[in-house]
Amino acid sequence: MLNIGCHLSASKGYLHMGKEAKSINANTFQFFTRNPRGGKAKDIDENDVKAFIEFAKENNFSQILAHAPYTLNPCSKDEHIREFALNTMADDLRRMEYTPYQLYNFHPGSHVGQGVEIGIDFIVKQLNTVLTPDMTTTVLLETMAGKGSEIGRSFEELKEILDGVKLDNKMGVCMDTCHIYDAGYDIVNDLDGVLDEFDRIIGLDRLCAIHMNDSKNPFESHKDRHEKIGEGSIGFDTMVKVINNPRLQGIPILLETPNELDGYAHEIEILRNAYKG
Ligand code: FE
Ligand code: FE
Ligand code: ZN
User: Fold this and answer.
1) Catalytic residue from among 20, 150, 160, 176
2) Is 179 considered catalytic here?
3) Active site residue 226
4) Is 176 a catalytic residue?
5) Please, what is the average pLDDT of the chain?
6) Which helix H or strand E contains 46, and what residues bound it?
């Protein structure tokens, strides 16, 4: 089963996103919980949510992925920025419960010179504050390219965060193909070796979502610039290997490539055609 979709605008609500996804032959999607730069979230429309849940069931949607604003930095040096991250995530997670059992992804953060260990401590502290035993959402750490002082550039760093979280059964990982390639995991020449390493360090049972992006930059460049599928340094063949890998079956795959809806429709079509399952 290939569960695939792309990033969509949330401005017209859940049902609209569901229909938009269906119109491009997707059965999942990603959206920002609020303006990607932060700010206040739109009020939840309970009728819209109910209609979406029904629609998703009828159309065999897999889990959908909510993405935290990318300005959220739980390990900033600045207390106010950390507080903003905490309040934003807590509010996002409250809102996520309107659509139970879905996924919430965030970038672990940038330690801005304080060092990885201090950064990881702040991230763990935030997660231990916002996660609650009764929540149904799974919170995902995204694998990062290692730009600047980004935390999450290695599987070991993510594992260290997971190890610090008390309610770690609420946690998972979202693997971004562009980011891990930029970070130095050679999925082009040794996808299975990378998956082995992920499994050994984190555990593949933690892998809950995949961001599928090609990269504008070469291997190990630590840059994080997404490219259209097949047009970057990773290439189409590797993407085909990813979607057909026996260990990655069923995991929702989300495109974050530089595209409008028609471009996403095209990428979903070529990937579905290349799927052998
Ligand atoms: Fe992301
Ligand atoms: Fe991503
Ligand atoms: Zn990225």
Assistant:
1) 176
2) yes
3) yes
4) yes
5) 97
6) helix 46-58
Instruction: Please tell me the least confidently modeled range out of 20-29, 39-48, 81-90, 259-268.
Output: 39-48
* Ligand 2 centre distance from Cα of residue 121 (Å): 23
- By C-alpha distance, which of 200, 206, 201, 226 is closest to 215? 226
Residue linked to tokens 């991230």: 123
Confidence of residue 170 (pLDDT cuts 50, 70, 90): very high
Over 90: is that where the pLDDT of 36 sits?
A: no
Given 7, 82, 95, 107, the catalytic residue = 107
Instruction: Kindly list the structural domains of the chain, giving each domain's residue range(s) and its CATH number in brackets, ordered by start.
Output: 4-274 (3.20.20.150)
Compute the distance from residue 263 Cα to the ligand 1 centre, in Å. Answer: 19
* Per-residue pLDDT reduced to its tens digit, 195-211: 999 999 999 999 999 99
Q: How far is the CA of 183 from the centre of ligand 3 (A)?
A: 11
Cα 258 versus chain centre, distance: 16
